[in-house]
Specification:
Two copies of one chain form a homodimer.
Chain A: H1 2-7, E1 10-11, E2 24-26, H2 30-33, E3 43-47, H3 54-66, E4 70-76, E5 89-93, H4 99-112, H5 119-145, H6 148-156, E6 161-164, H7 170-178, E7 182-186, H8 193-198, H9 220-252, H10 258-262, E8 267-270, E9 286-288, H11 305-308, E10 314-317, H12 328-339, E11 344-348, E12 361-364, H13 369-374, E13 378-383, H14 387-396, E14 400-402, H15 409-418, E15 422-424, H16 432-444, H17 446-460, H18 466-480, H19 495-498, H20 501-535
Parallel strand pairs in A: 3-4, 3-6, 4-5, 6-7, 7-8, 8-9, 10-11, 10-13, 11-12, 13-14, 14-15
Antiparallel strand pairs in A: 1-2, 2-5
GO molecular function (chains A, B): glucuronosyltransferase activity
Protein name (chains A, B): glucuronosyltransferase
Main location (chains A, B): endoplasmic reticulum
């Protein structure tokens, strides 16, 4: 389907790849539908990130287009999920790989899930997978940024702002090149580069770091671990972004790091919410839009109606867009467990269909996850605890059985378990019995349902819908050409100045000098007193 | 008028003051008007602070009452500004002073403004004034808190939450006694007790402290000053609140400080906005509602129409509710300057009316300040730069001539001047010439008007109106019996733990040990090597 759409693109003219290709633009209905009633109509450039990161960006792009802005989304000619939409234009750029390369990367998750691998072998597989993904990201970025014809085409469009996902700083680099304000949408950068760039304090005493699985209430040992992780974060950032730092030098022709480029950001739309996240300091230009995808709901397709209307309700089972297939031994654990429960199971599954599938299971290549979770018959949600899925489960108040696999998923899962709204299992060591027990808990122990409904009520009780809020702040930046008045004056400070270490050193020196002088004076006095006594 | 209203109160029964009096309740139309259509109807206790602090609290109380909540406002039987309203009930409590005592305190400002006083004498006058105000605040608080009959009446009312101004922690103490969640409305506590209680980081490298007049961009010397002020802030807090700490012990029967009581607060509604304030870190339970009074606009009274319709426009001149009178020598400076300008001047003035008042001046005992500023003919606003007035000037885009007198006024004025929207003068040293020059600048130099209109546009471009937002979060706390999920886990941490000083000490010790061991090892190796060479 996607390939067909790409073939239908209204191309300008395609030059040789090596010399740089001009952008291919797809004119959708968006332009025609631009409402003349809109008070302000801006031009927005959107540089999204692929995979699940696309969901939130697409929602904002669609809504802005619908409100009469001219929205242009830059996407590679082949991708995992990105594609055209009703209310925005897409502008594709060439990449030196094909769909098969993407499929190969997607299927690598299956190898990671193999249960009978020795530890070292599994680490090797994981490492190779990360290397391949990182390489894929860099190659995609380079083929866009170093395509001079394409970039100068963008420069001519006179955009008002760039909406992007800063995890991959391609959009931020383009914004700097074109002198445009930046709106970031993100869940969080693992090495806290987002917080550092926004100048946001993150005291390690109550702000747990990524991947630590810690909460905001830490004992001494946990605080030591968290502080150590906080101390090595800058190093981790360098590792993550060294190649992008090189690309930045090459692309911008200036000695600037990704951190500095991101520190120019005007607005940070954070896909977090404190019903899930631990409360932490924020900066004035950080806007919380966790749960942005909750209200994007459509009616269920007809073929699913019989599956959701059973008296025992149903279970939704998806492991996100990245994992649609899994090793046979894990599949059979799930199948065996599902055979023994009265609920129907709607399972997103793209692998080989095994024999003897129980009657209560419906396998589908794609499921309308949010619409299913919104159905009152949904009893449980088996999920990898990706941030989008977690928010959808929370939004509709469905207890979760979580099998986190990578990235922020273990952290998300730990937080949900901590709030008593779900159970966490290790997918590689899970047995039919432990799965059954977990399902039994989240379905039949009413506390899970009560807890998630209470949390859901808190989450949804907000003055402005997160999508509306995202659109508002994007429009704000377009209207005012930035949001400078919300940026803290931390970017000219070195870290020594930021923490006032120079001031502390001066004050300590003064105190020390005072103490030394006092001691010397006292000694002198005592000596004189001693001499006087001797003379007496 | 106010006395009449008090006399009309529906009193329960009044016992001897010494023994504690029962509350007098005024039943207004509020109860009758409670809308049955409201989805949720709560019971809110409001414990306001007098003076200009009353404005914002009153607006929220009115709006909540209008939406169908039962709002009860606790006020002393005599006060500066507080009184009944259409949509809330008032519950008065006795105080051991009369209106004459309040009038005496109000008129003390005049003494502070005397221009020909020696420095030491002026300081003495200021000190006496502060002592009297502080005593007034404590006596008022004690007469409410130690009135057992009154407090037990409040306890029986089953309120859902307390809305209060934490600068005077009476409301917070009552909330703790009755086990109720707290919503605070404030501009900021000078010793940063608000930030400390909310666990909000305030790095002295870019967060200027109260009274320093510093901006967010500081050189080394300024950072030293700011850090020193930050270091003595806890001491200043102790000085400010030691008597309230004693009242807290006595009232609550527990060893708890005001800081601890305030750290239980659920929501902090901060009357700040980053068009005026320097961007700084915030906590998730801090909601910005600066400019809450901007939209509370009424049409101008008829008798003012001829004064605002002149072709040269008009000047609004008020020095806030506390200062309505001033020494003759200052009055004559203003009169002489106004005589020489073409604009009309609408001046809030309650003192002796001098002879020979120029024809372009209208003196009034009270002026509809916000409504006048909203009029397109307003050319300049002469103000003491109190926070409410500053926001009103900003809201309506009127350039300001500022004569700050006390409290946060010098800081507010410095920030406005820093943004090029006004001129600051010292009221005690000002001459007719300097005043004329200042007025000429703000009225005729178009940059001032342009700057404040740009700033005004930024200030008013927000997703939710600040009054609406205040009401939302107050209702949120009433609905959910608090907002625990927004409170950072900092309150069980000592300051050593908060700053991870224990962790740093441990890590430093390990590093030191490692260095010592390495050095020792190397020494040993060198010694052995030396011996071996000797043997060779």
């Amino acid at each position: 389907m996607r390939t067909l759409v790409v073939l239908l693109l209204l191309s300008f003219s395609v030059e040789a790849r090596a010399a740089g290709s001009k952008p291919k633009a797809e004119k959708t209905k968006a332009s025609a539908e631009h409402s003349s009633s809109a008070a302000f109509s801006g031009k927005l450039l959107v540089v999204p990130m692929d995979g699940s990161h696309w969901v939130g960006i697409k929602a904002i792009a669609q809504e802005l287009g619908r409100r009469g802005h001219k929205v242009t989304v830059v996407i590679p000619e082949v991708s995992m999920r990105m594609g055209p939409g009703k209310h925005y234009d897409t502008l594709t750029h060439t990449v030196p790989y094909g769909q098969d390369h993407i499929d190969a990367i997607m299927s690598m998750h299956k190898d990671v899930l193999k249960t009978n691998q020795p530890f070292m072998e599994r680490m090797q597989v994981k490492y190779n997978q990360i290397l391949k993904i990182v390489d894929f990201i860099h190659v995609t970025a380079e083929s866009l940024l170093l395509n001079e014809t394409y970039i100068s085409y963008l420069a001519q469009q006179e955009f008002d702002a760039v909406l992007t996902d800063p995890m991959v700083p391609t959009g931020a680099l383009i914004a700097r090149k074109l002198g445009l304000p930046i709106i970031n949408l993100l869940r969080g950068i693992p090495c806290s580069l987002d917080m550092k760039s926004a100048g946001c304090p993150s005291p390690p005493s109550f702000v747990p770091r990524f991947f630590t699985g810690l909460s905001d209430k830490m004992n001494f040992k946990e605080r030591v671990i968290n502080t150590l992780v906080a101390l090595i974060e800058p190093l981790f950032c360098r590792l993550l972004y060294w190649r992008f730092n090189n690309i930045a030098h090459q692309f911008l022709n200036e000695e600037v790091s990704v951190a500095e480029v991101l520190s120019d950001s005007d607005i940070w739309l954070l896909r977090i919410d404190f019903t899930l996240e631990f409360p932490r300091p924020l900066m004035p230009n950080m806007i919380l839009v966790g749960g942005i995808n909750c209200d994007l709901r459509k009616p269920l397709p007809k073929n699913l109606e019989q599956w959701v209307s059973g008296k025992h309700g149903f279970i939704v089972f998806t492991l996100g867009s990245a994992i649609a297939d899994m090793p046979e031994e894990i599949t059979s654990v799930f199948l065996e467990a599902f055979r023994q429960i009265p609920q129907t199971v709607i399972w997103r599954y793209t692998g080989m269909v095994p024999d003897n599938i129980p009657k209560n299971i419906k396998l589908m290549k794609w499921v309308p996850q949010n619409d299913l979770l919104a159905h009152p018959g949904a009893r449980a949600f088996i999920t990898h605890a990706g941030s989008h899925g977690t928010f959808e489960g929370l939004c509709h108040g469905v207890p979760m059985l979580m099998v986190p696999i990578a990235g922020d998923q273990p952290d998300n899962a730990a937080r949900m378990e901590n709030r008593g709204v779900g159970v966490v299992l290790d997918i590689t060591t899970m047995t039919t019995e432990s799965l059954l027990q977990g399902l039994n808990e989240v379905i039949n122990d009413t506390r899970y349902k009560e807890n998630i409904q209470r949390l859901s009520a808190l989450h949804k009780d907000r003055p402005v819908d997160p999508l509306e809020l995202s659109v508002f702040w994007t429009e704000f930046v377009m209207r005012h050409k930035g949001a400078k008045h919300l940026k803290a004056a931390v970017h000219d400070l070195s870290w020594i100045q930021y923490y006032c270490l120079d001031v502390i050193a001066l004050l300590a020196a003064i105190v020390l000098l005072f103490v030394i002088l006092t001691v010397k004076c006292m000694k002198l006095c005592l000596q004189k007193l001693g001499r006087k006594r001797k003379q007496d």
